[in-house]
Amino acid sequence: MIAPDETTATVDAAEVRRFAALGAEWWDEGGSMRMLHRLNPVRIAYIRDQAAARFGRDAKRLDSLAGLRILDIGCGGGILSEPLARLGATVVGADPSDENIAIARKHAQDAGVAVDYRATTAEALADAGERFDLVLAMEVVEHVADRDLFVHRAAAMVKPGGLMIAATINRTLKSFGLAIVAAEYLLGWLPRGTHRWDKFVSPHEFEQAMEAGGLRATGGTGVIYDIVTGEWRLSDDMDVNYMMTAERPAE
C-alpha cells in the first residue's frame, strides 16, 4: 500500500487492506464479489447514458465513450474500468492498493483491453493536475477516511463541462437492515464487516459535498435488487443504494 503522507489523507488503511485481501476474487463472478458483478450492468448503463446525454453521444454505439477521458477512483480489480474502456473511453483506474492494481493490470492484459492502472490516490492525481471528462467514485465514498475532502479532491479533477458520477449507500434504518444485516450476516452476499452504517451517506450530504467542490448536482437514481429476477435495476427508491450525477459548468 502507498506510504501515508499528505496525498493519502482520505485513505482508510483498514479498508484498503480489506479489499486488497480479496485477491483473485475480484474477477470470480461466483465469489465474494458476485453481487458487484451483478450490479455492474446497471452501473455501466447509467454511466454510459449520462455521458451520452452530456457529451452528445449515441448510447447505442459500441464506441459511445470514444474520446472521453475517464477516471475510475477506487477501481479495485478493474471490473468497471475494463467495460468502460471497451466502450471506447480512455480510462485511468486508480486504487491505493498495489495488490488490486496488479490484479487489474494482469486481467486487462490477458483480455487485451487498454486501461491505465495506477497505484495512487485521488489526492495525488489532483495534485498532479490531472483532469477528466468524467470522474467516477462508485461504491467508494463509504470506505474513505474523510468523505468531504475526498469528494472535494475528486471534484477538482472534473473538466469544465465534465461530469462526476458516484454510487454509494444511504444512511437509513432500511440500509442498516438490508445492506448490513441482510447482505453481510443473513445472506452472505458480502464479507462481514464490508460496511459501517455510520459511514453511509445521504443524498443530501453527497449533493452538498459535490456543490462545495464546485459542481452542480443534476440528478440521481435509486438502485434496487429484484428478488424475483435476481437482477439489479434503477428505481425511484433511494433509501439504500443510489447513484448521483453532478456537472462542472462549462467555461
Explained architecture:
This protein has 251 residues and is α/β, with parallel strands linked by helices. It contains eight helices and eight strands; from the N terminus they run H-H-E-H-E-H-E-H-E-H-E-H-H-E-E-E. A hairpin with a 4-residue loop joins strand 6 (216-226) and strand 7 (231-235). It is globular, with a radius of gyration of 17 Å.
In short:
With 251 residues, the chain is of the alpha/beta class. The protein contains eight helices and eight strands; from the N terminus they run ααβαβαβαβαβααβββ.
Q: Using the alpha-carbon principal axes, give the shape.
A: globular
* Main beta sheet strand tally, sense and closure: 8 strands, mixed
Order of helices and strands: HHEHEHEHEHEHHEEE
Question: Overall mean pLDDT score?
Answer: 91
Q: Note the beta-strand portion.
A: 15-25%
Number of strands: 8
Low-confidence stretches: none
Q: What is the helix fraction of residues, given as a range?
A: 25-40%
User: What is the distance, rounded to the nearest whole angstrom, between the alpha carbons of the first and last residues?
Assistant: 38 Å
Write down the Rg: 17 Å
- SS-based class: alpha/beta
Instruction: Enumerate the strands of the largest sheet in spatial order, edge to edge or round the barrel.
Output: 3-2-1-4-5-8-6-7
DSSP helical segment count = 8
